[in-house]
Amino acid sequence: MSVTVRWAPSPTGKIHLGNARPALLNWFFARRHGGRYVLRMDDTDLARSSREFADGIEADLQWLGVEPDLLVRQSDRNALYDAARDQLIAAGRLYPCYETEEELDRKRARARLLGKPPIYDRAALELTAEDRARLEAEGRTPHWRFRLDGRPVHFDDLIKGPQTVNTASMSDPVLIRGDGTYLYTLPSVVDDIDLGISHVIRGEDHVSNTGTQIEIFEALGGNVPVFGHHNLLTDALGQGFSKRLGSQSISDFRAEGYEPLAIAIVATLTGTSLAIEPYESLDAIAEKLDFSMVSHGSARFDPAELDTLNARLLHTMPYDVAAPRLSARGLEGEAMWLLLRENLAKFPEIAEWAKLVTGPVEPVVADEDRDFLALAKALLPPEPWDETTWGHWTNALKTSTGRKGKALFLPLRMALTGRHDGPELKSLLVLLGRKVCLDRLP
Known about the structure:
Its EC number is 6.1.1.17. By secondary structure, the chain is α/β, with parallel strands linked by helices.
């Protein structure tokens, strides 16, 4: 079977880690199986959708390393949905209903009082043509419901295994609003059929929708895709990520200097049997991740784990990968990168760390160390230097002054770098050279 998957965000806000999870899991599945990846903007909610949010989603995907093979927008495809609507009406599967929301609320409340499930009673199916004409003359416009078969719908889930959804316990779903616009369900199924989607990979909160959607696939004569429902990513408090609640967005992480690969790893491997650890690329993850590794339990995001992973990716980043980003900051030099990368938590910090090599540096000199540093300056070895120079220099100082440990090394570090922490001085000394060291020592 050729693989075609889709990720279908609603452009009603910025995407967050919870959205990135299915976006990337679909990408990994497509890459693993040599398939196609469709980005579908589910923008049928015209009041809340915007092109700005859609453009932002595309930018976030590109930053994460996902390159769709096809981009479609539901707002451009109404003719397909109209044709499907007419087909379902002709088949008697889509029927008009005239109840107001208040009337439906009263029906549900009454059902609960009687100990019955609060599902729609299909009263609209009993309306005659004269009844419908009278209601429309009163100014009522119908919403349209899909008549379910009311049966157990079985499917083999890629992640959860055999599943059954009994549509007999559900209300016939509304597919078309009273104003004639489409809700999510019908356009989604129509697009999946039209685009040849072979696998639908999404969050487990959609399992209960699958029975309804399979019945619509069958009613339209379309091929039913294979479904896979993964566990949902939650925040550190166990709450679901939400645009409405203002969860930290992918663009926020980008602005804060996180590596896209770190975000991708945390968004997808959390809640699997694979460790949260560095990978070379998205393709390397795709080769290793199988859906059998996805846990059936929760997947809780740990910000500390992301910070640790981000640093680990930087600490092993090859110079050829870092070079274009260094160049954009006016920096270059493999030796400098290999020395300084161990100190980075986020890449933008390289600008500050690079000052240890390029300057300017404000040496910090304690009064009690001035004589010691004057002697250090006098004993600074002649060039050429290599990584043994530091040892020769400090051994000479130790012999001359009796200083050792922190009393020996910290004044040198503070004078040469202006800070308590930083890279190994034996390597930094070589990069600085004798003239710079003489200038920084008092």
